[in-house]
Amino acid sequence: MTRSSHPRTSGVDDFTGRGDLSEMLEFAERLAREVGRQARRAALDPADATMKAHAADWVTPIDVESEARIRHAITSRYPYHAIIGEELSPHGDADASPLVWHIDPIDGTTNFVFGLGNVSVSIGAVDDVGPAIGAVHDIYRDETVSAARGLGVRVNGELARIPTHTATLAGQVLLTEWSGGYHRWAGFDQFLDWTTSSQVTVRIIGSCALALAHAGLGRAAATILPARHNSWDLAAGIVIASEGRYRLMGVDGDTRGLPSTGLLVAAPAVADEMWAAWRRSVADSAGR
Questions:
Q1: Which among 66, 70, 88 is positioned nearest to 30, based on CA atoms?
Q2: Which domain holds residue 36?
Q3: Are residues 146 and 38 in the same domain?
Q4: How many domains does the structure of the chain reveal?
Q5: Secondary structure percentages of the chain, helix, strand, coil, to 5
Q6: 217 lies in the same domain as 278
Q7: pTM beyond 0.85
Q8: Splitting the chain (288 residues) into consecutive groups of 10 residues, what average pLDDT does each group show?
Q9: 155 plus 178 within the same structural domain
């Protein structure tokens, strides 16, 4: 079945218009908020957490339960949409579906296990054009940051007031994340040398979704995620950063979609400088 041949019911699956994106944005906001609040109230026993690929790759029963709740809500409301999530097998045909949801039920699981904060529920959706909807709920701040393509950035359902983008680097905040939980990404040391010389403060908070959402709200001059990441790490945050008028760049320059080999979102006036520093750092680390 092709994307165009899906049966539709009362316009529920017709996401081509701004009104439909608005309706699905509200759905994603409510869902991320509800699941996030349930996760915070849950009595997590750290002894129930287990490791997946390696010792820094945690999963808890709440991760799985949260994803199951999100999937049930999506399939009940949008039965012809596909779902890709971190913990459970894909649902539906992502190539034929009119829209694909990308779910990270607990982004920042290591933080969650150890009670460190900076934990989110991330729900994004991608259509034929690209990332279309994103909702990221910070479960400890009880704050939902969201956006839909063309509709701006919202905080707790209200249009956000985003400060004027910075035109300089000195004194600004840059967010990044480790590669694979604890590895330095290629060029990491060289890039930190550049941030130090440029008087840029670097923070690693442990949640890709939150790092992108904070940038979209103007809380950071940029977020750089140069390592390989999964679609559920990026989908929601990319929409928020884009609607926050941040420039999206991959290792080869401006990008769209869900780049798997690295992403920089940056205030437009500093994006080229940061991207050039990223490229130099990668080259220097390779000895070129």
A1: 70
A2: 3-159
A3: yes
A4: 2
A5: 35, 25, 40
A6: yes
A7: yes
A8: 35 49 97 97 87 84 96 96 96 95 97 95 96 97 98 97 95 94 92 97 97 98 93 97 97 90 96 97 86
A9: no
